[in-house]
Write a structure and sequence with these properties.
The protein is about 55% helix and about 10% strand. The protein is mainly alpha-helical. The chain has 3 domains: about 70 residues, no CATH class; about 80 residues, Anticodon-binding domain of a subclass of class I aminoacyl-tRNA synthetases (Four Helix Bundle (Hemerythrin (Met), subunit A), Up-down Bundle); about 55 residues, no CATH class. Helix 4 runs parallel beside helix 6 and helix 6 packs antiparallel against helix 7. The longest helix is centred in the middle third of the chain and has 19 residues.
Length: about 220
Amino acid sequence: HHENEIAQSEGATGQQFAQVWMHNGFINVDNEKMSKSLGNFFTIRDVLKTFDAETVRFFLVRSHYRTPLNYSDVHLNDARGGLKRLYTALQAVVPADVQIDWTQPYAARFKAAMDEDFGTPEAVAVLFDLAGEVNRSKSAEQAGLLKALGGILGLLQSNPVAYLQSGAGLDEAAIQAHIQARADAKAAKNFAEADRIRKLLLEQGIVLKDSATGTTWEASQ
């Protein structure tokens, strides 16, 4: 099959068709092979009606390209949750603009994973380890490296705050009004009202996070 693809494409164009052929595994839907006959066939456009493109990309690179890929909304939601963990690490630290030093331990591990038959699952594992380091150290250089390595896979290039707040059910002004009302209730020691507002926002897909510098929010998974 692939030899015929090469023959007809290069015969038609007179140019080399591709330098590398990567034969990917089948896509299964809830552990069944995707096919029109089973009625479980869908397109990327269908998926993008529910999930953003970066979540879909992250879902794909978490698995090795040669292994069967099991699609389900549960797995896509899990991928979005993992991506949010990486963006959360970048939210608290402004990433430095770095040139990747491939002798640096995290970068070297990432490169070794990719050099081993395009090992994206292992490369993603490095990103999570590096995100943990960023959370501990609050290092702008490490955050910059996380963003740069993620960029090789087409990940982590959005504004972290914007990404974490995407998908919210309320607009920014309404959310900030609720946050201020909750702060006023806490200042008045009306903790029952403050808790009611927090739960109200949670029901609408908004998670509040309190810190010494104030309250921030993000869309729930």
